[in-house]
Amino acid sequence: MEKKHNLAVFASGSGSNLQSLIEACRSEYIKNAQIRVVFSNKKDAYALKRGELAGIETFFLNRKDFTSDEDYDLNIVKKLKELEIDAILLAGYLMILSEPLLSAYEGRILNIHPSLLPEFGGKGMYGIKVHREVIKAGKLKSGCSVHLVDEEIDGGAVLAQREVDVLPEDTAETLFAKVLAEEHKLYPAAVRIFLESLY
Ligand code: GRF
């Protein structure tokens, strides 16, 4: 029996991408993989509740209990190694990863971003702000991207994208919702392909 990939999902918010990944693993759309743990930097992140409801181990670390991002991330790596995590999926995780995590999981960290990278990515570009900028720029298309995570914010290789039309009547809020619905399809599809390439 092929070993199951142990996946860690990092989330700071509602966890709707986490939910689609949980369902994709359980339905075996993503084969030979399980969400082994859900981690958050926010104690009240609903993503942690989703993990608990799904019977998945969760853990939280308070950044204020650590002297630096590196010390914080070193402690995250320690826990991930104990759980034999093979890959990390960022899903609305609002911390920037520091060197201990990036080096321990080099080439095995994915992120989903709500724009067609490389446009509308980078420092400060997350959440509703991305969609406001897309509309302000008068774009006719937007969408979401799954990319490898490296030291450059939203800079790693893009693995997959899905597009949506930006209609004249669209607001940042309606665009957010349209793109999020595509994220829920894109992330599982990208993870499935990624894991096939991992081993
Ligand atoms: C999504 O918009 C995603 O693109 C971004 O953060 C949001 C996560 O939403 N990375 P959720 O917590 O998965 O619902």
In short:
By secondary structure, the protein is of the alpha/beta class. Helices cover 38% and strands 22% of the residues.
Structure description:
- By secondary structure, the protein is of the alpha/beta class.
- 38% of the residues lie in helices and 22% in strands.
- It has a 7-stranded mixed beta sheet, with helices on one face.
- α2 (46-53) links the parallel β2 (33-40) and β3.
- α5 packs across α6.
- 36% of the residues are buried.
- It binds 5-O-phosphono-beta-D-ribofuranosylamine.
- The site of 5-O-phosphono-beta-D-ribofuranosylamine has 15 residues, from α1, β5 and α6.
β-sheet strand percentage: 15-25%
The total count of helices amounts to 6
Bound molecules: 5-O-phosphono-beta-D-ribofuranosylamine
Low-confidence stretches: none
Principal-axis shape equals globular
Helix content: 25-40%
Rounded to the nearest angstrom, the radius of gyration is 16 Å
Mean pLDDT: 96
Which strand order does the major sheet show?
A: 3-2-1-4-5-6-7
Number of strands: 7
State the order of secondary-structure elements, H for helix, E for strand.
Answer: EHEHEHEHEHEEH
Terminus-to-terminus distance: 14 Å
Main structural class: alpha/beta
Q: Report the sheet with the most strands, covering strand number, pairing sense and barrel closure.
A: 7 strands, mixed
Strand and helix layout:
Elements: E1 5-10, H1 16-26, E2 33-40, H2 46-53, E3 57-60, H3 69-82, E4 87-90, H4 99-104, E5 109-113, H5 128-136, E6 141-148, E7 158-165, H6 172-198
Parallel strand pairs: 1-2, 1-4, 2-3, 4-5
Antiparallel strand pairs: 5-6, 6-7
Helix pairs in contact: 1-6, 5-6
Bound molecules: 5-O-phosphono-beta-D-ribofuranosylamine.
